[in-house]
């Protein structure tokens, strides 16, 4: 990125002039929100509270990992446990846009409560360019409503501050490395979390299936890249499809769910090519998923679509 | 040098702004409803792509026609921007015989301006449903692909250029060089 240090200094100044009182920052633990948190903390110090929402839709071990990062940063933070609330609101919902809007609103309601307790009037978000571009506006089509833009309720009672609006992921990573932010190399993870990797209804059971499959995909790819078998993709995960298919397991008929493996190469998330994962690595993922998850999954497919015409996530 | 980007609602309008910034140009994204008078003193203009079906949704293309009629500085239309300028000067548009999403092999016919110093064929990325069916009188085709006969055009007697593909995205090879060639055209125009 051009002029990383100038960007950092100007942004800290800008945040300092905008945030006159206390602020909370929506912190998922991803590189965008962790960079925004670091810049804001440099600007206003103890007047900032970082809020991580455990919405019940996060990956295996994620809440503990993010709490560890927040603790190490030495800033004020709060972990809000809201899983039951999110599942309740998502009951029976299958439309991807509706899911995103419900999740966006739920996030804001949690933030509003936390802000009230802390006495904050400002909400800082790590929104980056693709979030508002894809959310659409007066002139742009809505590709998908990012929870932090298109999913914001109209009656939100806080002033938004979004210091990274003009940056793309590769630029945020440059800023993160310069600031020594620990999350600098974490792969992108969508705000609506595993809910948009679970096609069809979001239930605790479905989320448990996709969570385990995501863990296996991440684990096998990390190992393969570590062993020099492949390069790390930009983003890589599993998607639970809403269809069932017939299989045979130990001479018995099976009728189970399908997992799609998605992995892409990209720089900025605005265009992407599917990752050319070696067949041996795909084979290990497929066998491990279907063996260890035999009660729910009996078929694995690999997504070979670029963006455009697909998007990176399925919803 | 001031080169602005007219926002026709493209997914990659902001990428065009980013590429120009990286080329150290004074740049800004402006709505396509901006009156020409407010941008008459700049040095060059990009007409971005966008979701409108240019032939049917002319209203969503704002003041692009006014810029094309009044500006003396170079203008570069991308995707819907190229489709609009071709129709504006008398060309015709229609649904692509083969829509292009993602990678396309570009075949360059003229290396005089936008493709100066670039190979005869290279990979570019496109994303369009419609295409230019016939180009306006006084225009010529400077690049094509197997699936789209009009990938790039230029006006013979004014500095007006168009490309159907997207030079601003990461996956297009030589994209920044195409923008730099446009900036070089602006420089020549100024002296």
What does this entry look like structurally?
The complex is a heterodimer of chains A (315) and B (191). Chain A has 315 residues and is an alpha/beta fold. Chain A contains 9 helices and 9 strands. In chain A, strands 3-2-1-4-5 form a 5-stranded parallel β-sheet, sandwiched between helices. The longest helix of chain A has 23 residues, at 96-118. Chain A is globular and about 70 Å long. Chain B has 4 helices and 9 strands, in the order βαββαβαβββββα. In chain B, strands 2-1-3-4-9-8-7-5-6 form a 9-stranded mixed β-sheet, with helices on both faces. Chain A binds chain B through residues 2, 129, 133-134, 139-141, 143, 166, 168, 266-268, 270-271, 273, 306, 308-309, and chain B through 7-15, 18, 21-22, 31-32, 50-51, 60, 101-103, 125, 127, 169-171.
Average pLDDT of chain B, rounded to a whole number, is 96
CA distance, first residue to last residue of chain A: 30 Å
CATH superfamily of chain B: Class I glutamine amidotransferase (GATase) domain
Spatial extent as radius of gyration of chain B: 15 Å
What characteristic shape of chain B results from the CA principal axes?
globular
**Architecture of the largest domain in chain A in CATH?**
3-Layer(aba) Sandwich
CATH topology of the largest domain in chain A: Rossmann fold
How would you summarize this macromolecular structure in one to three sentences?
The complex is a heterodimer of chains A (315) and B (191). Chain A has 315 residues and is an alpha/beta fold.
């Amino acid at each position: 990125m051009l002029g990383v240090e100038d960007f950092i200094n100007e942004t800290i100044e800008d945040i300092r002039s905008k945030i006159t009182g206390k602020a909370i920052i929506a912190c998922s633990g991803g590189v965008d929100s962790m960079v925004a948190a670091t810049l804001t903390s440099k600007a206003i110090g103890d007047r900032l509270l970082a809020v991580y929402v455990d919405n019940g839709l996060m990956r295996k071990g994620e809440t503990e990992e993010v709490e560890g990062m927040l603790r190490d940063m030495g800033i004020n933070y709060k972990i809000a446990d809201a899983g039951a609330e999110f599942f309740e609101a998502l009951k029976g919902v299958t439309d991807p846009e509706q899911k995103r809007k419900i999740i966006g609103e739920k996030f804001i309601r949690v933030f509003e409560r936390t802000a009230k307790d802390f006495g904050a009037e400002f909400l800082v978000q790590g929104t980056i360019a693709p979030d508002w571009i894809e959310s659409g506006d007066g002139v742009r089509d809505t590709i998908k409503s990012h929870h932090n833009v298109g999913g914001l309720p109209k009656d939100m009672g806080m002033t938004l501050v979004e210091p990274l609006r003009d940056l793309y992921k590769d630029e945020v990573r440059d800023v993160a490395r310069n600031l020594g932010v620990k999350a600098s190399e974490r792969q992108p993870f969508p705000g609506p979390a595993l809910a948009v990797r679970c096609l069809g209804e979001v239930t605790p059971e479905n989320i448990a299936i996709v969570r385990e499959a995501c863990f296996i995909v991440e684990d096998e790819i990390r190992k393969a890249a570590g062993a020099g078998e492949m390069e790390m993709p930009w983003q890589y995960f599993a998607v639970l499809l809403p269809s069932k298919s017939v299989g045979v397991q130990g001479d018995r008929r099976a009728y189970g769910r399908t997992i799609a493996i998605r992995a892409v190469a990209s720089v900025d998330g605005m265009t992407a090519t599917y990752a050319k994962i070696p067949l041996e690595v795909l084979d290990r993922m497929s066998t491990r998923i279907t063996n260890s998850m035999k009660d729910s999954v009996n078929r694995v497919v690999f997504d070979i679509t670029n963006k455009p015409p697909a998007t990176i996530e399925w919803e | 040098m001031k080169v602005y980007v007219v926002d026709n609602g493209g997914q990659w309008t902001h990428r065009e702004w980013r590429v120009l910034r990286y080329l150290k140009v004074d740049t800004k994204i402006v709505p396509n409803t901006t009156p020409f008078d407010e941008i008459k003193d700049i040095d060059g203009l990009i007409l971005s792509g966008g979701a409108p079906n240019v032939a049917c949704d002319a209203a969503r293309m704002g003041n692009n026609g006014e810029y094309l009629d009044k500006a003396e500085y170079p203008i570069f239309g991308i995707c819907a921007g190229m489709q609009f300028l071709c129709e504006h000067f008398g060309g015709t548009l229609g649904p692509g015989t083969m829509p292009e999403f993602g990678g396309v092999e570009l075949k360059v016919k003229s290396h005089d301006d936008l493709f100066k110093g670039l190979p005869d064929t290279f990979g570019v990325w496109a994303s369009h449903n419609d295409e230019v069916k016939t180009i306006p009188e006084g225009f010529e085709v400077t690049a094509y692909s197997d699936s789209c006969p009009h990938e790039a055009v230029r006006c013979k007697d004014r500095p007006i250029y168009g490309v159907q593909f997207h030079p601003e995205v990461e996956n297009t090879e030589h994209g920044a060089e195409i923008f730099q060639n446009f900036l070089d055209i602006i420089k020549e125009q100024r002296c």
